[in-house]
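Thought: the user wants the 3D structure for the chain below. I'll pass the sequence to the structure tool as-is, report back what it returns, then summarize two notable features.
Action: structure_tool
Action Input:
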Amino acid sequence: MMAFGTDLYLLTIGILIAFVGTIASFALARKSVSHAIRESNLMRRHILWLAVALLVFFVVEGFVVQPAQQLFFDDAIYQGGAQSMLNSGQAWMCDFGSPAQCFVGEIFHEPIGTSFNLAIAFLVAGVKLAATYNTMFVLGGVSVLFTFLAVAVLFRNPKVAFLSALMLALSPMVLIWARPTTSDIPTLAYSMVALFAMAVFIRRKSVFTLSAFAFSLALVSYMKVFALIYIPIILVMYLILDDKSVRGSIRENLRLLRKHALDTNVLIVLLLFVVAIAPEISYAYTQATTGNYGGAGTSLQNTCAGNTLVPVAQNIGLSNLADNICSSTLFWFDYYAGAQVVQPLLYTGLAVAGAACMFVFRFRRELLAIGLWFLAFFIFYASFYAGSPTYGVDWRFQLSMAAQASILAGFALFIIFDALSTALLAVAKKAKFTAAVSGIVVFLLIAYPVYAYLPVVGVSPAGINQAPDARFYEGFVYNYSSMIPANCLVYTYDPTLFNINNRSAEQMGDLFNSQVYENRSTQYSCAVLDWGYWCYTPNNYCAYAKQNYVLQPIKNATFQPGDKLFGFYRIVGRK
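Observation:
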């Protein structure tokens, strides 16, 4: 725990450098970006295609998917971090604070990237849940936009770019996770920005495209504690795609490095990149060596042996891989759709077909790069103790592979469209007719799985089978925390949840520290006990508080089934 949060100021400085550096670099490299896009055969009509892909995403996400929180209670921690960043410049997980200031906080087990994005939205729209949903919504659109741009530049084929973007826009896992507050959608969005920057740098090498490439890599690393691995992954992808052979690519890039090693502008870019990335590297190292991510003392399912429970021995390791590999594979064959963990079999089939088509039609470097990108995250998350798609809501980790699968499927759809158009043209002799029919067939291949899974994609929040009691409790706080007098201090397991609902709060355990409690009594005119979700878990303080304090109900509600009573209780005095 930190009383002053100096480390978090360094993280804020780092992400600001990365964020501003990315935007400024793209602005300065606009001519190179424009040339790279024009060389990819993009024309004005293709911008309309991009608009269609974005419109499809925004319409389906906006009118079919009902926004809901899905992480309990990490979502409130991300939002509280954003609130704290606005107030003090640091994204704390607050243990004691008011809506205006966090007095005591600690580092969360994820970096500040998600909170940084939310802080921008809160600055514009205020600290409210709608701003949170809309931020994630926009980042989902950014993912679709930069998938189109990155694929267009890499393949120099607008049709493949459009179909890949459309596949991502209609991917059920993207649609389901595009509103909840997670670090996964921001990671997806900024990883595609980094991939686009890499593609532009391959086509047009300059100090400004290098800067955009470097800063976008730094920026994506702040989105998730594991996102640092994007740096070596995308650098390897760059070496694969930059020349006809990896050896040639290495040789040519070493020549460029020697030539420009003492170039002042290059040195400035590299220096700023190191300054931007250093706090995140330090943070990730600390988390890797000290954080247990909730694994200590828990169990995971051996999904290859009838889901038998085995104790968690390590955060990341081969033993976890052996336990998770079956569920991680079966996910891609839609084995868990009944549990609202969805990946349509048709989409996976198209991705596999796309990989085969890339090999046959000699897009083998692209296939190798995308395949390594997919495989790296597949193995990584299968090796993480909580990386199985069946481990609670952690199937969101599969979003790290959504873009790769969409690009492969997009390539397959392009081949299908091209082959079908050629075959029909030989019969009908009408190019517009054959193109229209082929387009309809391809669109149905993409759209039908979404239609088939509408009950899951558009499920009411009340119908989500994950953590219904936690969802009920969080809704209770949002709906009724205003009934708590503003001058009260709430003792709770979720202080950030109350901070973002405009109430002061402190960790429950401090209620039993006599000196702390007496000090707080002089600062606040009343105290309130939050009888919340964690009061129904082992080793909680709630029953002890009930035994030792006189409690006066403010508001309560019962969750069914289970008869769990949640409520706010004013602490009148000791018994």
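Final Answer: Structure generated. The CA atoms of residues 264 and 270 lie 10 Å apart. The longest strand covers residues 549-559.
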